[in-house]
TrEMBL record:
Coiled coil: none
Species name: Gluconacetobacter diazotrophicus (Acetobacter diazotrophicus)
Subunit field text: The Tol-Pal system is composed of five core proteins: the inner membrane proteins TolA, TolQ and TolR, the periplasmic protein TolB and the outer membrane protein Pal. They form a network linking the inner and outer membranes and the peptidoglycan layer.
Protein's recorded name: Tol-Pal system protein TolB
Record InterPro entries: 6-blade_b-propeller_TolB-like, TAT_signal, Tol-Pal_TolB, TolB_N, WD40
Keywords carried by this UniProt record: Cell cycle, Cell division, Periplasm, Signal
Domain TolB N-terminal per the UniProt entry, residue ranges: 62-154
C-alpha cells in the first residue's frame, strides 16, 4: 500500500469529529497518538503401520475441551529429524502448549510402531511420530498421531509442499491434533491483523501489519505516513477493512491482501470508522458521523449502496454482527452513557444489555454465538469481559490500565486483545502489545509482536 494510492480528501478534521473518534477509540487515542488444507500444500492419508496398531475410527477421541482445561493433555512431540523436522516439531509444541489445553513432552522419535509402554511411563496420553524430508525445493512431512493408552493410530497424513512451508504444515498438523483429541476445530493455521506501533509515546508511527497467530512471519502492509487503526478481516475473502487518517480525514478503506489494491469504502459526508464485515462477507457495517453524533450504516460490497441502520441522535458505534447475521451488537450513549445494545440487523428497536458498573465499548460477537466480549471502564481502570447476548452471566477475564479491542479466534475459545501500560514522564514505561486469554479467564499470554494494538483474528486458513 502506497500513500499515493489514497484518494484525495479534505485536509482537515473538525473538533466535533475528533471528539467522536476519541470516544470510540478510548484511551489509546486520548493518550497515545494525538478447515481445508492451505493452498499449495497437498495432503495424503497414511495407513496404519501394523495390524497390532489399527487406525482409530472417527469416534476414538475420548477427551473433551472441558476435561483438557482441568488437566491439559500430556502429548509427546519428538523432533521429526533434520532442520525442517525440528522446526515442525517446535511449532506444533508451541501451538499446543500455548493454548493451555496440552502439555507437550519431549521424547525420542519412535521407528515403526511405538513402544507404548515407554511413553506411558512418561505419563503421555498421546504421541506424535513421523519424518520430514527435503529435496528439489520441496518438503514432505509424514505425521502420525497415536493414542498411547489404546495403542491405536488416530491419524496418519503425509503433507507435500514447498521448502518454505514448514511452519504452515506444522500449524495444520497442530489443528489436526486439536480436532482429533478435543472434538472441535483448531485455530492455529490462522493470522492476526494488527497495528504495529513505533516511536515516541506522543508521536507514534502506526502501520497496518499482519502475522501468524503465534507472532511469526510478521510484516507491514502500510508505510506509516498516516495514522491507521482498527483492521478487520473478511470472513470469506482475502481482504481487510480498516480506518485511515489519509490526508487528515479518517475514513474506512478496503485492502485486498492478494493484490495490494486499496480503495475507499462508501461516500460519506462526515468521517467513517469502526468497520466490521457481515458474516457472509457481502457487506461492511460501520459508523459515520452526523452532526454531534454518529449513525450505523451497512455498505454493500458489490453495489456500494449504503443503508442507514440507526438514527438515534446519539453516538452509535462499534457495530458487530451475530454469527448468523440476524442481529448486531453496538455501543451507544443514547441512554446517557456508553452502553451495549442489541438490535435487528435491519434496524428497529434496540435493547440494552449492559448494566454493570462503568461504561462499555468494543463489543464483538463470538463465532459460536454464545458470548459477546467487551471492554468496560470503571473508576479509571479497564476490564475485558464476556456476557451472554441477553446480558446475563457477565464475567471479567482480565484488567489493567488499558485492555481493549477484543477479537475471538475462529472456534471461539480464545480472545486476543490489546494491553497497554501507563506512561510516566516523557512516555517512559509505556508499552502496547497483544495478548490472548481463553474464555474461562485463564492462561493469559503475550504474543511476541513488539509494539502493537488493534488485533483482528482471521477466519480459519485466513
Amino acid at each position: 500500500m502506497r500513500p499515493c494510492d489514497l484518494p484525495p480528501t479534505s485536509p482537515w478534521i473538525s473538533d466535533t469529529d475528533a471528539s467522536l473518534l476519541a470516544t470510540h477509540l478510548g484511551r489509546r487515542m486520548l493518550l497515545g497518538t494525538g478447515g481445508g488444507i492451505a493452498a499449495g500444500i497437498l495432503a495424503a492419508p497414511l495407513s496404519a503401520l501394523a495390524q497390532g496398531a489399527p487406525a482409530a475410527g472417527p469416534g476414538a477421541a475420548e477427551i473433551t475441551v472441558d476435561q483438557a482445561r482441568t488437566a491439559p493433555i500430556p502429548i509427546v512431540i519428538p523432533a521429526l529429524g533434520g532442520d525442517a523436522g525440528a522446526l515442525v516439531s517446535s511449532v506444533i509444541s508451541g501451538d499446543l502448549g500455548n493454548c493451555g489445553l496440552f502439555s507437550p513432552i519431549s521424547g525420542s522419535l519412535p521407528v515403526g510402531v511405538p513402544d507404548f509402554g515407554t511413553y506411558k511411563s512418561l505419563g503421555a496420553r498421546a504421541l506424535v511420530s513421523g519424518s520430514a524430508t527435503t529435496g528439489g525445493g520441496g518438503l514432505r512431512v509424514e505425521f502420525r498421531l497415536w493414542d498411547v493408552l489404546t495403542g491405536q493410530q488416530i491419524q496418519g497424513t503425509a503433507y507435500t509442499a514447498g521448502a518454505g512451508d514448514a511452519r504452515k504444515i506444522a500449524h495444520i498438523i497442530a489443528d489436526v491434533i486439536y480436532e482429533r483429541l478435543l472434538g472441535e476445530k483448531g485455530y492455529f493455521n490462522t493470522r492476526i491483523a494488527y497495528i504495529a506501533r513505533s516511536g515516541p509515546r506522543a508521536h507514534q508511527t502506526t502501520r497496518l501489519a499482519i502475522m501468524d497467530q503465534d507472532g511469526a512471519n510478521s510484516h507491514y502492509l502500510s508505510g506509516g505516513q498516516w495514522l491507521t487503526l482498527t483492521p478487520r478481516f473478511s470472513p470469506t475473502s482475502d481482504q481487510l477493512a480498516f480506518m485511515s487518517y489519509a490526508n487528515n480525514r479518517p475514513r474506512v478503506y478496503m485492502l485486498n491482501l492478494a493484490t495490494g489494491r486499496q480503495q475507499l469504502l462508501g461516500d460519506f459526508e462526515g468521517i467513517s470508522f469502526a468497520p466490521r464485515f457481515a458474516p457472509d462477507g457481502r457487506a461492511v457495517i460501520l459508523s459515520a458521523t452526523r452532526g454531534a453524533g454518529s449513525d450505523i450504516y451497512s455498505v454493500d460490497l458489490v453495489t456500494r449502496a449504503k443503508r442507514q441502520i440507526t438514527s438515534s441522535g446519539a453516538i452509535d458505534t462499534s457495530p458487530c454482527y451475530s454469527p448468523d447475521g440476524s442481529q448486531i451488537v453496538f455501543n451507544s450513549d443514547r441512554g446517557g452513557s456508553p452502553q451495549l445494545y442489541i438490535m435487528s440487523a435491519g434496524g428497529g428497536d434496540a435493547r440494552r444489555i449492559s448494566y454493570g458498573n462503568g461504561v462499555y465499548g468494543s463489543p464483538v460477537w463470538s463465532p459460536r454465538g454464545d458470548l459477546i466480549a467487551f471492554t468496560r471502564i470503571a473508576n479509571g481502570s479497564f476490564s475485558l469481559g464476556v456476557m451472554a447476548p441477553d446480558g446475563t452471566g457477565e464475567r471479567i477475564m482480565t484488567q489493567g490500565f488499558t485492555v481493549e479491542s477484543p477479537t475471538f479466534c475462529p472456534n471461539g475459545r480464545v480472545i486476543a486483545f490489546c494491553r497497554q501500560t501507563a506512561a510516566g514522564a516523557g512516555g517512559a514505561g509505556f508499552s502496547s502489545g497483544i495478548s490472548t486469554v481463553d474464555i474461562t479467564g485463564f492462561h493469559e499470554r503475550a504474543i511476541p509482536a513488539g509494539g502493537a494494538s488493534d488485533p483482528a483474528w482471521s477466519p480459519l486458513n485466513g
